[in-house]
Amino acid sequence: MASENAVPDTPSCSPLILIVEDIPFQVRTLTAILSELDCRIAIAPSGEQALNEVRKHPPDLILLDLILPDMDGLVVLRTLQEQEAFHDLPVIILTAKGKPENIVAGLEAGAVDYIPKPFHPAELKARVKTHLRCRKMWNNQKALITELQEALGAVQQLSGLIPICAHCKKVRNDTGYWQQVEEYIAKHTAALFTHGLCPECVPIFFPEAAQAGVAIGPLHHPESGTATEHRSRILVVDDSPMNMQLLLQLLRPDHDLLVATHGQVALDLARTEQPDLILLDVLMPDMDGREVCRALKADPRTDQIPVIFITGNGREIDEIEGFRLGAVDYIAKPFSLPLVRARVRTHLELKHCRDKLMHQLMRDNLTGLRNRKGFQDFLELIWRQAVRHRTPLALILFNVDCLKEFNHRYGRPAGDECLQKIATTLKSMKRRSTDLIARYSGQEFVCLLPGTDLDGAFLIAEMVRAGVEGLAIPHPGLTPPVVTLSAGVASCEPTIESNPSSLLEQASQALYQARERGSSKLRVP
Fold first, then answer.
1. What is the C-alpha end-to-end distance of the chain, expressed in Å?
2. Spatial separation of the C-alpha atoms in residues 247 and 259, rounded to whole Å
3. What's the pTM value of the predicted model, to 2 decimals?
4. How far apart are CA 418 and CA 290, in angstroms?
5. Which CATH number describes the domain made up of 233-361?
6. Measured torsion, CA atoms of residues 24, 26, 32, 38, in degrees rounded to the nearest 10
7. Which of the 8 DSSP states describes residue 236?
8. Where are the domains positioned within the chain?
């Protein structure tokens, strides 16, 4: 751990915390508290030095005082927010300005948390650990997405010699067909096109415009359509009618709201409705709010939903306990409505950002279906539900027959297009929202069917097989000479003693036997 202004350039696994504070006593106090954590520490006694320190050694977390000798702390925060390289750095404001309007201003400026002085050491450590953990997860997911995007970009790059006509500039594709350059590039890459005329062609095709000095701009722009506004869903859990009414009036204009006055009702709503945020009172008539939070964090269906405690019990020891249970924030009653609005907005933005990252990680870029990890996570969830409700669960593994030979004959781009058509067919045959279709591997797809026995899964497998064969994608050498699927079908009634891998293994064995026998489907005992 370093306590000097300069931070060593040597790489370290420990997170770096920048303390922006000009009072030596406060610096020593903060350094002593944070020394108990596995972290490195840098000190900046002024706003300008803080900005320079961030540029030289970007920290993982900033503790920022608002009262600095050269500039207001909010100016420092806004300056960081305006720079793309640093706008996502988590900043905790640590200051003696503890009025609600100060807290609202700090959160609106981009801070992730606000701790008034004097602070409790245990609470400070709890909040710092929470935000460092969030930062670490953010960095890991961001790095993984960057790797995936780079890998996708590499796949989509054109390589090798491309035959192009010297006269008309058409390109010969892998099947020997000559096509326009933009058509070829669009099929083999992620590039988009907009059409216009270069200065040399304007006088030839539009002489009147050229004489008048008019430029011919793009005739078509690839971007079209407008995105619909997303309304977040918030679950408000409070047994006080007055508090409930205040929160509903505050949040209803911008969010969709769910309401619960009892702990068990709150748990049921959280599991079935999957809200983006939960505002939870601690003192409940039937079930303590801490117990509700503990149950939420113990359930994989709800453990990622952020929880904000709102309660009249504002002791520091209670706040520390709330953070230990997994809450992301703690608001004491009587609460300030602007403060609640600001904190809700901050945590919803963090939740939506994390959800976007997770969505990208769970998707297959080629087909748009869930990838293998996305399927496995969903399988774990559906398995637990089947155990609880004692219902059957079926799984079908599909294999694209002889895809390697297809790619060898027609080229990888044609193989990718074939997989996309198969994925579209699979999605079109999905009948229930609870069913899941995913890309399991390069040439395998998987279909998960809750509440379905072996006979039902067998019929669905046959329907999908016939649907793909009906696409009539040419594949000489097969019987029939089109792209076909083999399928392995399995079904069971999950129990506490069993696990999802057993069902997957049954389907894999069935698929192996189906491919060996040249059949498209096979029952599994």
1. 60
2. 10
3. 0.46
4. 52
5. 3.40.50.2300
6. -110
7. E
8. 16-138, 178-212, 233-361, 372-517
